């Protein structure tokens, strides 16, 4: 296991320092925390906070900025940040209209987010939480994990919050996006944690792991490696079952960190050829990774007019710039 | 060796189709070629063409668009495109003011580019070529390879061409950028070609390869794996020797395809801490890769006012959007 790093115990902090140093007109690190916040909050709007364990870069700190998040909390690698960190992010994001937390569906994140909400409410800051659970690899919706679809929910909710909408209205749009988005992933190679010398699981040269999460956990099923074409079919089938059949789509092909852009676009090509639908937006790249894992996730979002407008609205963050 | 692909012999073509399908308002593939061109040329300006072997994505097709390239030619993986492909790109980029080719310093690319120039001149299209050779790992400047610094040269030259400047003037700015830019790379893991089951070289778990190129070739030196801090020092030293000591800098930390953004930012942090200079722009990410190689390159560009303005100008391409 080789990585470009110094002390593995300090890798998240060094990452955050590097990110801020490279983008210091846009973002800042709140002193004494692992919270990245917008350098300036220019308008009175609902604050938007996200966060979770690190190892998924550019999520979430890379999406802090105009039109997306106001603050992002970085836990240790694959570990939920503490409630005090979420609380610091809420305080930084608060502009007087309340704060919405967008949290991926993991017990630790939800629990710490809720504790932070209590701390904020005690200080008079109104908060709400929307839980993202887009991963169809898990059958029970209650247990479903939040994966790459989270980034599209952040984009949409962030754009809507910029309009100055109220907290209940921003929450409504986030919940609508969550209800219409589904994802699934496949890995060809496991990831390796910075502080551990072993890959998170073993895969032989002719196997792939289907239905993986983003924390190096095993998937739902192990299969023979398939062509891009067949892999696209394999991920599309369970996703399409839960996507309204008439709506136009936004799709995201997300690299897991160790997958070349060439492969991601080959896969995108196969997905688009097999989807006999109106595809209005296609995003291809590393949006939510799992360290150096080789693999991809596929996300489909059923659009309506409101969601489309939010997706097309301007954004100025480290990793997502448009308009 | 596992990759997300179908027929490895067809991987470049499938990649180009996926890239265009995902970005069809911005770019098009010229029929019967591996050339990606802007969908619309809106102003009369010098045409800008780049290209070379594939495997370096998002270079070069990801940089076709407003403010950067007018057309990019994709060869097979790590293989120069033929002269006829470069010629097709020149024809597509020509808007009546001549065409500049930005070519990385590899024999095949230079030779095929020159042949394409002759074909174009025979058709009455004025052309020039600027050769990029930013890699200080090679001592002899004549033999120096073009690596990630190429992307900054494309950004700068593309912005300057948008001003409507003449071909000699656009060439002058490209040459100035080339004269003030230097890079060097290190690999922790080799890459694997799609059609070959073996890594391009072997590296043990405690070694790194210093001074690698972007085609899976061996580096200049093999060393024990070092910390990010020491690796930054190792790459900075030879680069700084050739960079004017007073000029403000733009720096690029480029991932080689299989390196997580977390590691890239850790490395960026160490580079910036060791550089006691005025750093005006820092770019961190996968700009010019070598398939799934793990490693980074470091690029320093000595700015002047003209180069700064070009770097800050708007760009709208698949992979570089600003302003």
Automatic annotation (TrEMBL), chains A, B:
<dbReference type="GO" id="GO:0047324">
    <property type="term" value="F:phosphoenolpyruvate-glycerone phosphotransferase activity"/>
</dbReference>
<dbReference type="GO" id="GO:0004371">
    <property type="term" value="F:glycerone kinase activity"/>
</dbReference>
<keyword id="KW-0418">Kinase</keyword>
<dbReference type="InterPro" id="IPR050861">
    <property type="entry name" value="Dihydroxyacetone_Kinase"/>
</dbReference>
<keyword id="KW-0808">Transferase</keyword>
<dbReference type="InterPro" id="IPR012736">
    <property type="entry name" value="DhaK_1"/>
</dbReference>
<dbReference type="GO" id="GO:0019563">
    <property type="term" value="P:glycerol catabolic process"/>
</dbReference>
<dbReference type="Pfam" id="PF02733">
    <property type="entry name" value="Dak1"/>
</dbReference>
<dbReference type="GO" id="GO:0005829">
    <property type="term" value="C:cytosol"/>
</dbReference>
<dbReference type="InterPro" id="IPR004006">
    <property type="entry name" value="DhaK_dom"/>
</dbReference>
<protein>
    <submittedName>
        <fullName>Dihydroxyacetone kinase subunit DhaK</fullName>
        <ecNumber>2.7.1.121</ecNumber>
    </submittedName>
</protein>
<feature type="domain" description="DhaK">
    <location>
        <begin position="7"/>
        <end position="320"/>
    </location>
</feature>
């Amino acid at each position: 296991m080789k990585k470009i790093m110094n002390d593995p115990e300090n890798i998240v902090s060094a990452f955050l320092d590097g990110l801020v140093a490279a983008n210091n007109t846009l973002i800042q690190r709140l002193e004494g925390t692992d919270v990245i916040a917008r350098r300036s909050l220019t308008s009175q709007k609902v604050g938007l906070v996200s966060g979770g364990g690190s190892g998924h870069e550019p999520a979430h700190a890379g999406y802090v900025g105009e039109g997306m998040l106001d603050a992002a909390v970085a836990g240790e690698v694959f570990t939920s940040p503490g409630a005090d960190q979420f609380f610091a992010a809420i305080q930084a994001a608060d502009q007087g209209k309340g704060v919405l937390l967008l949290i991926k569906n993991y017990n630790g994140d939800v629990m710490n987010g809720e504790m932070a909400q209590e701390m904020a409410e005690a200080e008079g800051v109104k908060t709400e939480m929307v839980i993202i659970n887009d991963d169809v690899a898990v059958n029970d919706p209650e247990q479903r994990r939040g994966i790459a679809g989270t980034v599209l929910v952040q984009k949409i909710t962030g754009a809507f919050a910029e309009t100055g909408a109220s907290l209940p209205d921003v929450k409504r749009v986030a919940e609508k996006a969550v209800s219409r988005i589904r994802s699934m992933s496949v890995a060809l190679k496991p990831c390796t944690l910075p502080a551990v010398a072993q890959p998170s699981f073993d895969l032989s040269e002719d196997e792939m792991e289907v239905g993986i999460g983003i924390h190096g956990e095993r998937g739902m099923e192990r299969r023979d490696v398939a062509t891009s074409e067949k892999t696209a079919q394999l991920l599309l089938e369970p996703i399409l079952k839960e996507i309204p059949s008439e709506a136009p789509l936004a799709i995201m092909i997300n690299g897991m960190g160790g997958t070349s852009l060439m492969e991601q676009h080959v896969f995108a090509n196969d997905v688009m050829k097999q989807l006999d639908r109106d595809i209005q937006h296609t995003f291809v790249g590393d949006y939510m990774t799992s360290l150096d894992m080789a693999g991809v996730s596929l996300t489909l979002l059923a659009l309506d007019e409101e969601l489309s407008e939010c997706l097309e609205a301007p954004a100025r963050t480290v990793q997502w710039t448009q308009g």
